[in-house]
Design brief:
About 35% of the residues lie in helices and about 15% in strands. With about 550 residues, the chain is α/β, with parallel strands linked by helices. It folds into 2 domains: about 190 residues, Rossmann fold, CATH 3.40.50; about 260 residues, UDP-N-acetylmuramoyl-L-alanine:D-glutamate ligase (3-Layer(aba) Sandwich). The strands form 2 sheets. An 11-stranded mixed sheet has the order 1-9-18-17-16-15-14-13-10-11-12, sandwiched between helices. The chain has a 7-stranded parallel sheet with strand order 4-3-2-5-6-7-8, covered by helices on one side. Helix 2 packs across helix 3, helix 8 runs parallel beside helix 19 and helix 14 crosses helix 15. The longest helix has 19 residues. The chain is elongated, with a radius of gyration of 27 Å. About 50% of the residues are buried.
Length: about 550
Amino acid sequence: MTELLTAAQMRAIEQAAIDSGDVTGLELMERAGQGVVDAIFAEWPELAAPKPTAPAAGEAGGSTPSPLHGAPPEYLREDEKVRQAIVLCGPGNNGGDGFVVARLLKEAGWEVEVFLYCDPEKLPPDAKVNYQRWSEHHSVSQSDLSTGGGFPVSSGCIVVDALFGTGLTRPFNPSQDFLDNFEVLSDEGLTGGAKVVAVDIPSGLCADSGRPLGVSLFAHLTVSFHRRKMGQLLNEGPWRCERLRVSDIGLPPIGQLPFNVVDRDKLVWEAFFLQRIWGLMPNKRNHSAKDHKYSHGHALILSGGIGKGGAARLAARGAIRVGAGAITVGAPPAALIENAAQLNAIMLRAIKDADALTEVLQDTRINALCIGPGLGMGARENEIIAAALEHKGPIVLDADALTPLAQEESLFTKLHKNCVLTPHAGEFARLFPDIAEKLDAPATKGPAYSKVDATREAAKRAGCAVLFKGPDTVIADPSGRCSINASVYERAAPWLATAGSGDVLAGFITGLMARGFQPMQAAETGAYLHTECALSFGPGLIAEDLPEELPNVFQKLGL
């Protein structure tokens, strides 16, 4: 797993590195600027320029080379075409990064214009040094975001957004003249391929939540430093950032920091890589001569009535493909024939009502339960949910099991630590209306209330793991542990938005819990595999394809 950082955590890590004496703020700024330039040429190799002849000391364009990087790198091809960049610098250290970018691009042979949207005397010390390095030989156009702020855009130029970055805490509301430039830049056809590059995060976007603070700009490429920030994966972040690269600026890993620098209990993790849990998956490394189907877990999936069993069958297929040794679908007696006609390796059991479920659960081999997909809603179903929750074993509550929890407090209070709730946004709003209201309220200051905050709060209230679905799926448990499985950027899989996809996810989680995974671990891993299956299959996916793609995914993961 990879850590995702808030703006405050990133500042703490940088300050700890500076306080240790291992690096200075100026050196970090130089590394950040170089990282942006390197990312531009890595993303668009056709923009690479030849290494220029170094100007003599004191000549226009000359500046002290970076002590960390030496002379500018020799880029990818010889080309006489002049490259143009417009660098927009703001009042903080993000603006200082922008001056480094401007200087490095100038040294690489580019024509560069710099616009500063603040009083240079009020720049932070490190940013002021880089402002002075630039302004010794080149002009700076000063402007005011609220009253003007327009800048020229020419065909094929690069516009570097170094206005506010992750440090923004107040609404960003620039003038219409300024915004008009970005309106044009958003249409590549109108600007002949002009590109916007954001330093750390597009200005106006909350780095913790991905929510706009006032107006948010966009970028064709965003260059994040050290680690991804949560806001780059949540809410509007992926659509505002478009493409994302992470630049290593030489900061130590979280594990090498003193414990009090970053509270590890408050970290959020990105995705979940299956290699960490080989020991719990059926594979050739951990098999035993005494293994049998029930030693790999037995999951019970409850089905709805006649014509309502498809969702449960999808969940059952997901559970057995993910590694559960045995699966039983429990259906009303009238629906048994329908299910039998479509199931082979999956067993069937008649479950008429709550009493019948209680009796079935006496079988101690059943060690995980999935309830909700296609279950239906009514008095009978509420009683079945109550009986399932009395069992106290691992249980996934999805779809039709979630609305009764919202309607009946007596059911909600039966939730326990072995439960996993899997709501989409509408179900989440019914279950946790006050939390959803905070999440939906306009963001007026940063850091804004985020989907991570909402999911953590919901998990604490419910006393169990909550998987809040979406392209930016967030999973949390009552302890505050949290991870994000975002199907965005290189993991974008929009074809997951298909009927039955969520039922398969519920089955994955149930099957993993039957294998012995803890609820939070099962939810993280299930969500990760869900996306990997979609990526492996590609466009044209339907829900039935997801379980059948698991063998290919497992093979790629080395299981």
